[in-house]
């Protein structure tokens, strides 16, 4: 074969729509179409030279070859010297300047920053990837590959990029037994049965994903820490994880237990002011650094949700943080102290009590007392990753303390990766929120990056919780949250739209219809989720004392956890004003406090977070609170229904496997949105006694309650909480096989029959739907949802479409229980299909 022919052969796209597991996430390096590939092949030098031999730079070179091979179908030639005709040259900034003729002198690159440039001199063409650090070289390489995947022009390439903040970390809430607290993508990639996994290949693949976003630190064990992590037994194991990450420039972080000096050190105390305790932390830290010399730091959750802390000795958080920070200091390590400190045994009867106040109350008075390698890690809102919270006032208060914002990538309160919710627009609102900490122009992002009060360090932490499942996070769409987190940590000025577009194109390809559809689903998804799970600042109306998944409007009330919304028959919302409430609004700087304090200026979307109002209170929108609640819940459910329809139009444009998996997810999601809609609306309808002006709440067209059907073997059972079941009731099968039948009395025509049933995680019940004697659908309820009960979490919808019905037809659902799952039914809906 001639050289020319070989090129042509190599340019034919390799991939059609073959099945993808999602494991490659946004680093698929899918073959570009022939014309685009040819353009790049003609522009890029065919040779690569890496100037340094550090593992990270070597990784960069390998990644470049891999990416170019995948996208362009050609293999770069590796050379140890820069040939006169040109090369892609990778290396540290000064080395690249020296090696590439004619590179103009410029400002030195920021640490971890990079510069990409293409220079042509005569017939020579050099593309340089210069890094401000070894990591910068790798980040620059990923940036170049991203540009190619996105089809960006290379000809005039000349770009500098620097990370917005030094700290760009992820946290993992992995337990040593391999489970993950609030993880929805399978078991831990790090741990199994109390030890570090033998096979850490998934850890290095994860390191690659993180490096592609510029993430440079990763904690590998739960903040609810098992103290054994600091025993000698674990150090060599931890060192293996550090080794797997090292080629990707990702440094290890450990969560520690504050009681460690006593629990694993055998001391009589863990008092941070005790000299023996300080010495213990120092010796332990030295030992850690002998095992992992590039350890990035340690992380602590103390005095929170049952974790012990300095309060045991009447010491301050600064005392606690500094004792460990001082041990880390000689090694250059950072100590992250979580701002998530609150009392979860608060008296709910006291209307002045307020969990939202806790972070500020605990830390503001200590400002200035923390050592300069301590970072206070602050959740983005004052409560706990709820669907809508204001930005934490603590960001605007700390002037002499390093801080980092904690964002939760794993979708704990956002449908736990079973629903599609793109969190970037929510994070952007927090990051861009102007705290007015020194007059206007002090957004949260600048405060955490230490740019306002000139702090030595700070930045971003994302609770990622990926798992062993092929697609890392439990579904394909959730990957956008990890991608988005990393991109924002590098550059929080990117827009949500830019991030969604990039992610979609890298993950699903450049087909304009695919890009436009997925981008639009992602971009609206947070607000849609908010519409049906907790609008107007109510926070997520979920089972906050249980699985944090299903709907349970009152679960937040009458307990010490402090996620109260105080909705009752008279009104809703929590009075957090200074004038009459908890005073939380006064924790913001005056200009912000004033806006939240007044009903006239408080934004509608946070109204019930700051104010308790009657249901008839008129919003800025001109609608009452109660009617807005009803309407938004209907709007939200309709929108999710729309996701399914939009996705279906992508059939044949997305590979079969991901198409089918996302479709199943969206169909499930649409059913859940309806469950939430009805539950929340029915609850507020009962509480307020105010009818829906549009007559929808309590009147479901075509709905037939299971308990009103002709039952054989099925018995009525209450649903708890009541709003989780239609009419507060369901039927559960008490025999080996049961049936529920109804006679259709409508007009002859085509119908969709929806069966609302309960799919728990403790059995695989079977269902069959018959019209007359004909079986029109059957399935096994084998989904895994976090409940073993008949409740809103297990409530699931099955739609059987295209059913011809005539008056008198008998529709029968047959259920066969399995294990703890009683083949329960809530209702049927028989809905006419449009001709
Ligand atoms: C949430 C979450 C817990 C977690 C805690 C934390 O409350 O539900 O699982 O431990 O946050 O951030 O520490």
UniProtKB/TrEMBL annotation:
One GO MF term attached to the UniProt entry: xylan alpha-1,2-glucuronosidase activity
Q: Name one GO biological process term.
A: xylan catabolic process
Which Pfam families does the entry link to? Glyco_hydro_67C, Glyco_hydro_67M, Glyco_hydro_67N
Reactions catalysed, semicolon-separated, are:
Hydrolysis of (1->2)-alpha-D-(4-O-methyl)glucuronosyl links in the main chain of hardwood xylans
Indicate the family of this protein. Belongs to the glycosyl hydrolase 67 family.
> Which residues does the UniProt record annotate as the domain Alpha glucuronidase N-terminal?
25-144
This chain belongs to the protein called Xylan alpha-1,2-glucuronidase
Q: Which Gene3D superfamilies match?
A: Alpha-glucuronidase, C-terminal domain, Chitobiase/beta-hexosaminidase domain 2-like, Galactose-binding domain-like, Glycosidases
What EC number(s) does its UniProt record assign? 3.2.1.131
Is the keyword Iron in the record?
A: no
Query: Which CDD domains does the protein's record reference?
Result: CBM6-CBM35-CBM36_like
Keywords assigned: Carbohydrate metabolism, Glycosidase, Hydrolase, Polysaccharide degradation, Xylan degradation
Q: Which InterPro entries match?
A: A-glucoronidase_C_sf, GH, Glyco_hydro_67_aGlcAse, Glyco_hydro_67_aGlcAse_N, Glyco_hydro_67_C, Glyco_hydro_67_cat, Hex-like_dom2
Q: Name one GO cellular component term.
A: extracellular region
Domain Glycosyl hydrolase family 67 catalytic per the UniProt entry, residue ranges: 149-472
| Catalytic machinery residues | 305, 384, 412
Q: Where is the Glycosyl hydrolase family 67 C-terminal domain?
A: 474-696
Q: Is Cytoplasm a UniProt keyword of this protein?
A: no
Q: How does it assemble?
A: Homodimer.
């Amino acid at each position: 074969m001639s050289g020319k022919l070989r090129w042509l052969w190599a340019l034919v796209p390799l991939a059609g729509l073959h099945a993808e597991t999602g494991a490659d996430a946004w680093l698929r390096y899918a073959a570009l179409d022939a014309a685009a590939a040819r353009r790049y092949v003609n522009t890029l030098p065919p040779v690569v030279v890496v100037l340094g031999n550090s593992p990270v730079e070597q990784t960069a070179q390998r990644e470049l070859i891999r990416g170019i091979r995948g996208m362009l179908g050609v293999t770069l030639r590796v050379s140890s010297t820069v040939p006169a005709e040109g090369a892609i040259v990778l290396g540290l900034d000064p080395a690249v300047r020296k090696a590439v003729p004619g590179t103009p002198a410029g400002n030195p690159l920021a640490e971890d920053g990079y510069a990409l440039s293409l220079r042509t001199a005569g017939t020579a063409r050099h593309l340089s990837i210069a890094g401000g650090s070894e990591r910068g070289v790798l980040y620059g390489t990923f940036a170049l590959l991203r540009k190619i995947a996105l089809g960006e022009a290379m000809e005039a390439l000349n770009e500098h990029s620097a990370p917005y903040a030094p700290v760009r970390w992820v946290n993992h809430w992995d337990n040593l037994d391999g489970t993950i607290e609030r993880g929805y993508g399978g078991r831990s990639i790090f741990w199994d049965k109390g030890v570090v996994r033998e096979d850490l290949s998934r850890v290095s693949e994860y390191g690659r994903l993180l490096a592609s976003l510029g993430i440079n630190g990763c904690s590998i064990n739960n903040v609810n820490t098992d103290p054994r992590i600091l025993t000698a037994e674990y150090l060599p194991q931890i060192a293996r994880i550090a080794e797997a990450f090292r080629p990707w420039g990702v440094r290890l972080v450990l969560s520690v237990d504050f009681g460690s000096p006593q629990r694993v050190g055998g001391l009589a105390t863990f008092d941070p002011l005790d000299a023996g305790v300080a010495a213990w932390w120092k010796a332990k830290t030295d030992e850690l650094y002998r095992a992992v010399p590039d350890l990035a730091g340690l992380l602590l959750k103390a005095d929170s949700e049952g974790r012990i802390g300095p309060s045991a000795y009447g010491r301050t958080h600064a005392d606690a943080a500094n004792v460990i920070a001082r041990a880390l200091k000689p090694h250059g390590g950072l100590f992250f102290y979580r701002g998530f400190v609150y009392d979860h045994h608060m008296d709910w009867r006291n209307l002045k009590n307020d969990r939202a106040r806790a972070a500020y109350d605990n830390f503001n008075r200590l400002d200035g007392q923390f050592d300069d390698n301590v970072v206070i890690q602050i959740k983005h809102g004052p409560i706990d990753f709820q669907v809508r919270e204001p930005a934490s006032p603590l960001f605007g208060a700390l002037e002499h303390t390093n801080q980092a914002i904690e964002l939760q990538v794993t979708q704990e309160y956002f449908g736990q990766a079973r629903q599609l919710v793109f969190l970037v627009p929510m994070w952007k609102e927090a990051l861009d929120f102007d705290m007015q900490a020194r007059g206007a122009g002090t957004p949260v992002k600048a405060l955490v990056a230490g740019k306002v009060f000139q702090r030595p360090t700070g930045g971003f932490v994302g609770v990622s919780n990926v798992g062993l499942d092929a697609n890392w996070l439990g579904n394909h769409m959730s990957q956008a949250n990890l991608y988005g987190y990393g991109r924002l940590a590098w550059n929080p000025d990117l827009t949500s739209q830019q991030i969604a577009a990039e992610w979609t194109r890298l993950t699903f390809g450049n087909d304009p219809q695919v890009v436009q559809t997925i981008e639009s689903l992602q971009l609206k998804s947070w607000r849609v989720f908010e519409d049906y799970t907790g609008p107007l600042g109510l926070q997520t109306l979920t089972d906050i004392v249980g699985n944090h998944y299903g709907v349970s409007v009152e679960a937040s009330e009458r307990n010490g956890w402090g996620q109260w919304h105080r909705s009752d028959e008279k009104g809703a919302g929590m009075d957090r004003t200074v004038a009459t409430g908890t005073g939380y609004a006064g924790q913001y700087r005056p200009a912000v406090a004033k806006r939240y304090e007044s009903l006239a200026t408080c934004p509608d979307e946070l109204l019930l977070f700051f104010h308790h109002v009657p249901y008839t209170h008129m919003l800025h929108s001109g609608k009452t609170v109660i009617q807005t609640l009803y309407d938004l819940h209907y709007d939200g459910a309709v929108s999710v229904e729309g996701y399914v329809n939009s996705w279906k139009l992508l059939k044949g444009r997305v590979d079969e496997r991901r198409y089918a998996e996302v479709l199943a997810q969206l169909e499930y999601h649409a059913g859940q949105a309806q469950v939430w809609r009805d539950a929340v609306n029915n609850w507020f309808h009962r509480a307020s006694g105010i009818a829906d002006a549009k007559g929808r709440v309590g009147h479901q067209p075509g709905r037939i309650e299971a308990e009103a059907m002709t039952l054989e073997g099925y018995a009525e059972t209450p649903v708890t909480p009541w709003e989780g079941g239609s009419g507060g009731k369901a039927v559960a099968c008490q025999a080996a096989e049961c049936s529920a039948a109804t006679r259709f009395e409508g007009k002859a025509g085509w119908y969709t029959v929806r069966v609302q049933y309960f799919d728990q995680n403790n059995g695989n019940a079977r269902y069959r739907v018959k019209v007359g004697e004909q079986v029109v659908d059957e399935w096994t309820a084998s989904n895994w949802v976090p409940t073993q009960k008949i409740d809103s979490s297990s409530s699931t919808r099955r739609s059987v479409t295209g059913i011809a019905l005539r008056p008198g037809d008998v529709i029968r659902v047959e259920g066969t229980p399995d294990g703890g799952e009683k083949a329960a039914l809530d209702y049927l809906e028989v809905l006419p299909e449009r001709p």
